[in-house]
Specification:
Blueprint (H helix, E strand, L loop, with lengths): L1 H18 L16 E3 L5 E3 L7 E7 L3 H20 L5 E7 L4 H10 L5 E4 L4 H7 L7 E5 L5 E3 L8 H8 L4
Parallel strand pairs: 3-4, 4-5
Antiparallel strand pairs: 1-2, 3-6, 6-7
């Protein structure tokens, strides 16, 4: 069972390089590529829904094979959200999972905070737009949707909190 997920993840990375030709990855300082993904209730969100707030995004997969890896980061992310709630930072998680039911179960069991979204069939161009080769990937956007950091330090790295605390309200 776990092997199936390893090959699925590997297939995702191969598809990124093969099918996303022609889509140029975004760069720091540029306007972030827009997105439109749904939460567990089907409500659609796009970049404009977070305008006026810094946006700390995490692209992840919660399939069984790596959920243990993500598990240790969840507490750190929840802690960061709590500490920084007065900083005008929107925390979003964007899952690459192909199984929506598995994803919903995961976010409910882990009581994930912030806005939790799942990618649809447009995930290849989205992942390529942000030059995502590995997951999880942490991204930081400013209040106008411009890219501050395409590869934020992980929550376990003290530099992550330092960067987030330095943001102006």
């Amino acid at each position: 069972m776990k092997l199936k997920y390893v090959f699925s993840s590997l297939g995702i990375l191969i598809c990124l390089s093969v099918f996303a030709d022609g889509v140029k990855p975004a760069k720091v300082g540029e306007q972030s590529p827009d997105f439109q993904f749904a939460d567990k209730n089907g409500k659609m969100y796009s970049l404009k829904d977070f305008k006026g707030q810094y946006l700390r995004g995490m692209i992840f997969v919660c399939i069984n094979v790596i959920s243990g890896i993500i598990e240790c980061k969840i507490g750190l992310i929840k802690n960061a959200i709590e500490k920084l709630k007065k900083k005008n930072i929107a925390f979003i998680g964007i899952a690459t999972d192909l199984d929506k039911d598995e994803w919903i179960k995961f976010i409910e069991e882990k009581a994930l905070k912030g806005t939790q979204l799942i990618m649809d069939r447009k995930w290849i161009s989205f992942m390529h737009s942000y030059d995502v080769a590995t997951i999880p990937r942490y991204i930081l956007l400013d209040k106008e949707g411009k890219i501050i950091n395409l590869n934020m330090p992980r929550p376990s790295n003290p530099q992550c909190m330092k960067i987030l605390k330095s943001l102006k309200r």
